[in-house]
């Protein structure tokens, strides 16, 4: 298969080279129907299910898994422009601080996205196909999540936003949500209709069984009505 040299593609100059780090083991390979080999020297090796850049720490697997370790602080749509079959992206523990607003929007089959342990200050637009999102241990703060960012993610089951210095719970949250981790932020208050519908006392949110608010200054005992529709009380401070 002919190699594609990303150095000649638009936007490649936004990538910032960093010193090599200790190599991580690639994630398990899955059988693929497509394979693109991006050639960036030194030491790039194609695999049967995608590509593995030893020096650039990138492993990309179609129809199953993408696990990537980038030596760059900026992620653009360039990285995924040939990868519309991607289902999983793992960018855990890098130095990523910026992601283009539309970087993931062409990935119509993307189910899982992990941006854990980076330096991200602004969450980009997310494809509606996602069912797992982990943006823990970043720098989102007060303005890093846009209003109604998760509203249209009707298949979202897992949302991890802990360790981000958030001062609020991002709303609305889809009814499909099963786990919401917001521990170790700066959330100080909650409204009665954050999770429930106070005008509809018959409303039950049975799927959302795992809510973590521990490590926040909020006192959960002040808003007991906020949990009436939930199967269990969130983990957090009660006194």
UniProtKB/TrEMBL annotation:
- A Pfam family cross-referenced in the UniProt record is LRR_8
What keywords are annotated for this sequence in UniProt? Disulfide bond, Glycoprotein, Secreted, Signal
Q: Where in the cell is it found?
A: Secreted
Question: What is the first-listed, main subcellular location in coarse terms?
Answer: secreted
Gene3D superfamilies linked: Ribonuclease Inhibitor (3.80.10.10)
- What parts of the sequence cross the membrane? none
**Protein's UniProt keywords contain NAD:** no
Q: What is the recorded name of this protein? A: Opticin
Q: What is the lineage of its organism?
A: Eukaryota, Metazoa, Chordata, Craniata, Vertebrata
